[in-house]
Amino acid sequence: MSDVESRTEMPQIAERPIDRVYEMIRNRILDGTFKPGDKMVEATLAEMADTSRTPVRDALRRLSAEGLVVTGPNRRSRVAEFDMEELAAVYEVRVRLESYAAELASQRIDACGLDRLREINGRIEALGPEVSNYSLAKFLELNAEFHMAIVEIAGSHQLETAVSSAITVPIVLLKHYVWGDTVRLELSHQQHREIIRALESGNRKWAAACMESHIQTSRPTAAL
Fold first, then answer.
1. Which of the two residues, 221 and 46, has the higher pLDDT score?
2. What CA–CA distance (Å, rounded) separates 59 from 15?
3. DSSP bridge pairs for 71
């Protein structure tokens, strides 16, 4: 028997039930399977996840803290609903926090960070200019990855936590409330490239202005 064959394999750590249930529910909210206002019945979710109600209850608490689920009396939960005024407020939060994040990132970014942003934007551009249900869903996912990468480069954990929540909410709202709103993918590509150039230059004000302009032009028209 060879050394490779005789080598003892390390046992894999099983995913915790709460993490598995959390990911299942969260993904189904984000992909539209669970829609705003839908009831989150613990027994039904436990059956779907093949688990007990306890992990479901814990997962719903986590999702409630993220703002994706609302829990009322008697632990009755439902998918969160948002009106356009709240959506507008979320975009204002994003403008202010992410512009500041871009300022900080412009002073910290290195070649690896720039390569990371270019790679993400390359995947976005590969989706092409045509908007379909698939390309829009994928764009929203990659766009959030691009924005969070900049926040991570900024180097503030508190800022990262705040922006993460603000980015997640518009994804849900865009899918369920303004799906018919025009999404200008090519404009987004151009603005991402401009943001990268501003970060590379180290110009704090340019980086902040580029980020503000990008978020403002991506704001759904109903929330202007």
1. 46
2. 14
3. 77
- Other beta carbons less than 10 A from residue 9's beta carbon: 5
φ and ψ at residue 68, rounded to 5 degrees = -90, -20
Helix (H) or strand (E) holding 133: helix 133-154
**Extended beta strands in the chain, E state:** 39-40, 69-71, 77-79
Helix (H, G, I), strand (E, B) or coil at 79: strand
Calculated CA dihedral for residues 69, 169, 129, 135, nearest 10 degrees = -20
The pLDDT, as a whole number, for residue 182 is 56
Rounded Cα distance, 147 and 191, in Å: 12
Question: Which of 3-17, 58-72, 150-164, 210-224 shows the lowest mean pLDDT across its residues?
Answer: 3-17
Residue 13's SS3 state is coil
Please list the residues that pair with 214 across neighbouring strands: none
Q: Which of 147, 165, 177 is nearest to 64 (CA)?
A: 165
The two tokens of residue 69 are 């689920």
Please state the pTM of the whole predicted model: 0.74
User: Tokens 């669970």 correspond to what residue?
Assistant: 34
Confidence of residue 80 (pLDDT cuts 50, 70, 90): confident
> Helix, strand, coil proportions of the chain in percent (round to 5)?
70, 5, 25
